[in-house]
Structure to design on (270 residues):
C-alpha cells in the first residue's frame, strides 16, 4: 500500500468514525454534568424534607450508580454498539462475570438489609470488622466510618450485614467500669468512701442506677475495688478520664497507696 492509499484509508476511517467518537464524548461530558445535577437536586430535596441521613446517603448513591449505567448505555449507542450485543457478550462470559460480581451483589444485598433492619444509622458510633468509628455514609456497596483520630474506613456492606457489630449509640445511657487497686493494709472502707464522694460530686454520674463499689479481687499485688457508674452516652469518655485523675489525686492526698506489680524474694543462707 503506497502513501496515497494509506492517507485515503485514514481519511475514510476518520470520516466514518470521528463523528461518532465526538458525539459519544459529548454525550459522556453532558451526561456526567446532568447526572451530577440530578444527584445534587435529589440530595437537596431530601435535606429540605429532613430525611433520615442513612436513607439519604443510600438513595443518593443508588441513583448516581443507576444514572451512570444509563449514561454508559447511551454512550455505547452513540458509538454504534448495540445494547443487545453488549448484553450478549456479558451472557457469553456469564460464569466469569457472575464470579466477579458476586461480592458486589452481596454488598448490595447487605446494604438493603441494613436499610430494612437499621442496626445502625448515620452518626452512630460502632465497632465492626475490627474497626471503631462514627458512621459517615451508608452507600449501596460500602459503609464509610470516621475514626476518632480522623481516619476514613470503608467497610463492605455484605460483611457488615452478616458479621457481628457493637453499636454504642443505640442506648441513651452507658455503664463505666473501673478497677482501682489499693495496697494491702490500706483502709478499704476509707477508699470506698473516697470513691463514693467523688461520684456524688459529679453531676454527670446518674443516681439511678446507683453508683457501685465492691471489693472485686484480692490480687497478687493489690486489693482491687470494682467500681461501676451509669452516665449518659455522650458523657462516657469525659467522665471515664476525669474520674481516673480525681481518684489518683484523692488517694494520694488521703494516704491511700496505689500499688504496682511487685515480688518479694526471700534468700536463705545454707
Amino acid at each position: 500500500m503506497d502513501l496515497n492509499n494509506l492517507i485515503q484509508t485514514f481519511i475514510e476511517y476518520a470520516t466514518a468514525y470521528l463523528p461518532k467518537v465526538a458525539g459519544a464524548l459529548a454525550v459522556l461530558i453532558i451526561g456526567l454534568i446532568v447526572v451530577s445535577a440530578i444527584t445534587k437536586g435529589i440530595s437537596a430535596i431530601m435535606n429540605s424534607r429532613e430525611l433520615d441521613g442513612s436513607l439519604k446517603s443510600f438513595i443518593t448513591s443508588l441513583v448516581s450508580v443507576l444514572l451512570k449505567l444509563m449514561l454508559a448505555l447511551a454512550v455505547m449507542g452513540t458509538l454504534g454498539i448495540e445494547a443487545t450485543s453488549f448484553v450478549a457478550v456479558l451472557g457469553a462470559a456469564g460464569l466469569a462475570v457472575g464470579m466477579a460480581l458476586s461480592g458486589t451483589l452481596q454488598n448490595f444485598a447487605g446494604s438493603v438489609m441494613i436499610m430494612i433492619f437499621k442496626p445502625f444509622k448515620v452518626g452512630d458510633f460502632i465497632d465492626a470488622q475490627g474497626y471503631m468509628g462514627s458512621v459517615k455514609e451508608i452507600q449501596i456497596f460500602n459503609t464509610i466510618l470516621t475514626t476518632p483520630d480522623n481516619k476514613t474506613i470503608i467497610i463492605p456492606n455484605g460483611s457488615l450485614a452478616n458479621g457481628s457489630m457493637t453499636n454504642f449509640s443505640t442506648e441513651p445511657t452507658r455503664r463505666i467500669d473501673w478497677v482501682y487497686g489499693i495496697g494491702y493494709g490500706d483502709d478499704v472502707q476509707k477508699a470506698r468512701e473516697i470513691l463514693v464522694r467523688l461520684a456524688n460530686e459529679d453531676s454527670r454520674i446518674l443516681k439511678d442506677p446507683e453508683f457501685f463499689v465492691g471489693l472485686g479481687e484480692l490480687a497478687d499485688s493489690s486489693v482491687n475495688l470494682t467500681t461501676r457508674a451509669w452516665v449518659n452516652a455522650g458523657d462516657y469518655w469525659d467522665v471515664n478520664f476525669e474520674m481516673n485523675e480525681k481518684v489518683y489525686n484523692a488517694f494520694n492526698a488521703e494516704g491511700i497507696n496505689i500499688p504496682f506489680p511487685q515480688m518479694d524474694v526471700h534468700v536463705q543462707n545454707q
